[in-house]
Amino acid sequence: MDLLQMKDKNIVVMGVANERSIAWGIAKKLLEVGANVIFTYRKERSKGKIEKVLENYQDYNTAVIECDVNSDESIARAFSQIGEQFGVIHGIVHSVAFAHAEDLKNRFVETTREGYAFAQDTSAYSLVAVANAARPFMTEGGSIVTMSYLGGQRVLDGYNVMGVAKAALEAAMRYLAADLGADGIRVNAISAGAIRTLAAKGVPSFNTILHKIEETSPLKRNTNQEEVADMMLVMLSALSRGVTGETIFVDSGYHILG
Ligand code: NAD
């Protein structure tokens, strides 16, 4: 049996903003192995970018659907549309996060109530809401994978409110894994190393982080979208059928350092 078999699996990929997005690296891999990829986007600008890159993938089974994770109505509409069009959902890539720029620049102690709630809502609660909306269509079981970062487990300079949101995201992932395991749905997180993307631009000390990882990580280099996408294939496929509730690091081993 080919445990990496993804042909004709319906996978929802949330969070492609442009070709640098981690989610785009993942989607590309999924298309290469024959999966049907349902892209969700928040902004019209992202929709345009997704449709543009998909011009090179015209023979593939794809869909592009609006889903703003800050809105219950938008999530419900998106998943009922996906259910209608594809029937069964086999996997979800949750690669979505956002915090106000000032909450990453200011001292953590100055985080506002609104900024804290917004980061949590967008970056952590969204996983719960999405899992609940997708559940009725995951009738054959499946795999939900979210994207985390080391700043959810350690204090990293400039990650601030997003670090707290990632901590909540990883805890939510474990509670969802416990809740949905009986339905054959696995829930995991990939904690990626620093990768230059649109979201990373908001982290003030990003260049310093990249240099530090290159100099000190066990593999002495930074990771990239492709390495994360390869691990995502493992986590979405039956290769990882015994794994749930886990945070897997794809970060050149940086997280093991003291
Ligand atoms: P990105 O900016 O390309 O992707 C972030 C996505 O989140 C965008 O597509 C954006 O549209 C989407 N998003 C934000 N608010 C949304 C909303 N309300 N509704 C729907 N979508 C919304 O950046 P990325 O680096 O590819 O980030 C993807 C994930 O990977 C994030 O969870 C990020 O925290 C995580 N991550 C990134 C790095 C890194 O260094 N780049 C490292 C570890 C983890």
TrEMBL record:
Bilayer-crossing residues are none
Query: Which molecular-function annotation in GO is an example for this chain?
Result: enoyl-[acyl-carrier-protein] reductase (NADH) activity
Q: Recorded E.C. number(s)? A: 1.3.1.9
Q: Name one GO biological process term.
A: fatty acid biosynthetic process
Q: Which residues bind NAD(+)?
A: 15, 21-22, 68-69, 96, 166, 195-199
Question: InterPro entries, from UniProt?
Answer: Enoyl-ACP_Rdtase_NADH (IPR014358), NAD(P)-bd_dom_sf (IPR036291), SDR_fam (IPR002347)
User: Pfam families, alphabetically?
Assistant: adh_short_C2 (PF13561)
The UniProt keyword set, sorted, is: Fatty acid biosynthesis, Fatty acid metabolism, Lipid biosynthesis, Lipid metabolism, NAD, Oxidoreductase
Q: Which residues form a coiled coil?
A: none
Q: Which reaction does it catalyse?
A: a 2,3-saturated acyl-[ACP] + NAD(+) = a (2E)-enoyl-[ACP] + NADH + H(+)
Q: Which CDD domains match?
A: ENR_SDR
Q: In which pathway does it act?
A: Lipid metabolism
Top EC category? oxidoreductase
Family recorded in the similarity comment: Belongs to the short-chain dehydrogenases/reductases (SDR) family. FabI subfamily.
Protein name per the record: Enoyl-[acyl-carrier-protein] reductase [NADH]
Q: Which organism is it from?
A: Ureibacillus sinduriensis BLB-1 = JCM 15800
